[in-house]
Design a protein that fits this description.
This protein has one domain. The protein has about 220 residues and is mainly α. Helix 5 packs antiparallel against helix 6. It is built from seven helices and no strands. It is about 80% helix and about 0% strand.
Length: about 220
């Protein structure tokens, strides 16, 4: 009975994803195209929240895998970076479903700069060159503020600028701490850092999904 129940829940979630299409970037556009018949169907809030969490969990998971690969200069570093960059496109596509393609492309660009900035900061840290580290860090945190400003501009009532800046700064602080501990070989603390990042990103994802639901209430069902 438990297996059957889980199968039914999974089937319902998959059906919603098929309706939403590429809104959450979980599969190629050709496989999840939204039909005209389904375009007006309301979205389940619960499934929307879970999909948003999935996007941002992918974000921190692939970021961590990149940190591990970059720290040890593993041969999968470049492939991991490309997968991480794809996640930024996925997030931009999700936003585009509500705010339009130009907004989605803008967020994708900002998020890709966020990832490339992190990579530059890791390389600077590995070199031990303090001026390079300081310059890379300053650029990375400035990009975080740009992301916060973009989100606030899209939904000022539900995503206040101060909250967005604080959320982005916390994400950057924790990620920097994770990378630093990894580079230092302090793996016990590195693992604790990731747990903190995971909890924080779930809260940020929930803030984003609830903000969209409040801004576009007619697109969502009550549950």
């Amino acid at each position: 009975m438990m297996i059957l129940k889980r199968y039914r829940i999974a089937s319902r979630t998959l059906a919603v994803m098929l309706v939403l299409g590429v809104a959450f970037g979980l599969a190629p556009q050709t496989a999840f195209a939204v039909s005209k018949k389904d375009a007006g169907q309301k979205i389940s809030r619960a499934d929307f929240n879970q999909a948003m969490r999935k996007l941002w969990e992918d974000h921190i998971t692939w970021t961590r895998l990149y940190i591990v690969s970059a720290a040890a200069n593993l041969p999968d570093k470049d492939a991991t970076a490309q997968r991480l960059l794809q996640n930024q496109t996925d997030i931009g596509n999700a936003v585009a479903q509500f705010y339009g393609k130009p907004a989605g492309d803008k967020l994708t660009g900002l998020l890709k700069d966020h990832i490339l900035g992190a990579a530059a900061l890791i390389e600077a840290a590995k070199s031990g060159d303090k001026p390079k580290i300081d310059a890379a860090a300053a650029k990375w945190y400035a990009n975080g503020n740009d992301i916060a400003a973009f989100l606030n501009g899209a939904n000022p009532q539900n995503w206040p600028l101060a909250d967005m800046k604080a959320g982005m700064k916390m994400h950057l602080d924790l990620t920097l701490q994770e990378a630093t501990h990894r580079l230092q070989g302090n793996y016990a603390e590195d693992i604790k850092d990731y747990d903190k990042i995971h909890q924080h990103i779930l809260g940020l994802a929930d803030l984003l999904s609830s903000g969209i639901e409040k801004q576009f209430p007619k697109k969502f069902s009550k549950s």
